[in-house]
Write a structure and sequence with these properties.
250 residues, 8 helices, 76% helix, mainly alpha
């Protein structure tokens, strides 16, 4: 039961399971199935760590409710760490929308509960599809299973370690977003500089009026290069998310 609570809290927040395209019934069934498979491992890890195992964990109602709340917090924290890693792809798409002029057509996506323009949503949906198509979600679930060894049932989260992981994750988020969208952003920035110089040389041309179609053309032409790199990006982010999961446990 406690393993299922941690897994359910993780699936509600962590991608790709957090997307609303995955029904809540599927998440609940997946959490219970994984909990049944991981229960022996979780019990052995709890016993090895000196924590009570088996039915001794729920020695009373108050103790059991406290353990449930602890596992909800633990699963949510682990899921947030994974979600923050994969948020780099959406951040890269948002940066392309901002510099390419697509941000003017942003809309609210009820499936992901986020607001973004075309490239941001394209990158997010492509990452979601790649996680399932490449079986990367199984790597994430394997990392979740190993957290029962690093962070056994009955053991609380070390807030200092969690804060360090979140701080490092935010830094990696911005760095990864710039690595994904950086070349295209540089080209769009140089286009703005060129249009500005052209306006200074010949003000009557009104070069900035040509800026929107020019930047959109550059984004559509050169954005394919960054888009083709997404499979390798998702692979690298998957490995990073698993290592971050284990880092929180330590």
């Amino acid at each position: 039961m406690l393993a299922g609570v941690r897994i359910a809290a993780f699936l509600v927040i962590a991608p790709p399971f957090a997307h609303r395209a995955v029904p809540g019934t599927v998440k609940a069934m997946l959490a219970m199935g994984l909990a049944l498979a991981m229960a022996p491992r979780a019990a052995r890890a709890a016993a090895a760590a000196g924590a009570p195992a088996g039915t001794e964990i729920a020695s009373g109602t108050a103790t059991f409710l406290g353990d449930v709340v602890l596992q909800v917090v633990t699963g949510a924290a682990l899921g947030f760490v994974v979600a923050m890693v994969f948020a780099a792809v959406q951040a890269a798409g948002a940066a392309i929308d901002l510099f390419g002029g697509f941000q003017l057509a942003s809309a609210f996506d009820p499936m992901s509960m986020t607001s973004g323009a075309q490239w941001s949503r394209l990158y997010q949906l492509t990452t979601l599809a790649l996680l399932f198509a490449s079986n990367a979600y199984q790597v994430v679930l394997a990392g979740l299973a190993r957290t029962f060894d690093a962070l056994p049932l009955g053991a609380g989260l070390d807030l200092s370690v969690l804060a360090h992981a979140l701080t490092t994750g935010v830094t990696q988020l911005f760095v990864s977003a710039l690595q994904i969208a950086g070349p295209l952003i540089a080209v769009l920035f140089l286009a703005d500089v060129g249009l500005g110089l052209l306006t200074r040389v010949a003000p009557a041309l009104n070069a900035f009026a040509l800026g929107f179609p020019l930047k959109i053309l550059l984004t559509l032409t050169l954005g394919v290069t960054a888009y083709l790199a997404l499979p390798h990006v998702v692979e690298a982010l998957t490995d990073t998310s698993v290592s971050d999961l284990m880092g929180v446990g330590r």
